[in-house]
Amino acid sequence: MDCPEERKNRHELERAGAGHPLDQHDHSRILSRRKEGESRRIVHIGGVEIGGNGLVVIAGPCAVESSAQIRDTALFVASAGARVLRGGSFKARTSPYAFQGLGIEGVRMMREAADEAGLPMVTEILSEKDLPAMEPYVDAFQVGSRNMDNTALLKELGAVRKPVVLKRGFAATITEWLLAAEYILVGGNPNVILCERGIRTFSRDTRFTLDLAGAVLAHQRSSLPVIIDPSHATGKPDLVVPLAAAAVAAGLDGLMVEVHPHPSAALSDAEQALAPESFHEMMHRVAAVGEAVGRPVMKSVGLPTGPAAATGGSVSGT
After folding, report:
1. Contacts (Cβ under 8 Å, ≥6 apart) of 27
2. 317 φ/ψ angles, rounded to the nearest 5 degrees
3. In degrees, to the nearest 5, what angle opens at C-alpha 269 toward C-alphas 267 and 273?
4. Cβ-contact 161, 315 below 8 angstroms
5. Is the pLDDT of residue 32 over 80?
6. Strand partners, 85
7. What number is the average pLDDT over the span 135-154?
8. What phi, psi does 79 have (nearest 5°)?
9. Measured in whole angstroms, how far is the alpha carbon of residue 300 from the centre of its chain?
């Protein structure tokens, strides 16, 4: 059963969606709510449009390990059809003994690789203290599952205009996820992309459980673009391809997947990364499904990338 706070938050979302004013003490302005007749929101990462008619694939390694590794991965995923490069340089790990990332040096490596491949980049930020050092290099910030409730970070990201990929907490309800997005929107940054990355359930057969129904519900309730991360949701490469296709068939806006040139040698999440041949298979599968449902995979348009090419993300309606 819902707790009282969850019922209250959901009621606020429903009231706002129905056009009822919120009490002045309500902590949510419900800026993400899709109102009747409102166009869907489009967010741009560099020159790449997310939330429009085309499907966007974001791909890259879980962690930046070296200049050669991120460069090789960037060039490969770009050639295979990805439109945005992903990769982590600041890693939130369960164990303090696990690889924590290369920090700001990894961000610089990723920027160089992204520019060479002609892709914009998105990378995770763990703390608001890292924002000044990271902002000159990144096209979009990712807020990971563990930080969805980090309101100090969300508020700081609301003060910038670069896009934010907000991953759902693995124990968060849809309402809590949407209210986390509100922290960024209320701060004045409209460039938010929601990412479903799996929730924790009783099942031990997969790493997490991909809540495809929840992602579709968020897409219906919100005007924000919604993408999925089937790599973290399942932890199994052989499940990534069919679930990616299912997300496209369900009408979501894009995919974020982990790809590594040599998955068995990866320093982070080696067991879930797609090998190059599997990524090719996924791209073929989602392209076929996308054409069937009228959401073709977005092709390269040859736009310049990097912070010099854009002041950040921009937002518009379809």
Report:
1. none
2. -110, 155
3. 105
4. no
5. no
6. 59, 121
7. 96
8. -65, -25
9. 19
| 46 DSSP β-pair partners | none
Task: For strands 192-196 and 41-45, give the pairing.
Answer: unpaired
CB 52 within 8 A of CB 318: yes
* Cβ atoms within 10 Å of 9's Cβ, excluding its own: 21
Angle of helix 174-186 relative to helix 212-221, nearest 10 degrees, comes to: 40
DSSP assignment string, 240-258: HHHHHHHHHHTT-SEEEEE
- Smallest CA-to-CA distance from 81 within 287, 268, 261 is with 287
* Tokens matching residue 86: 């992903």
Cα distance between residue 61 and residue 102, in whole Å: 13
CA distance 225 to 193: 5
**Could you report the per-residue pLDDT of 194-206, keeping only the tens digit for each?**
999 999 999 888 8
Domains of the chain, first to last: 40-317 (3.20.20.70)
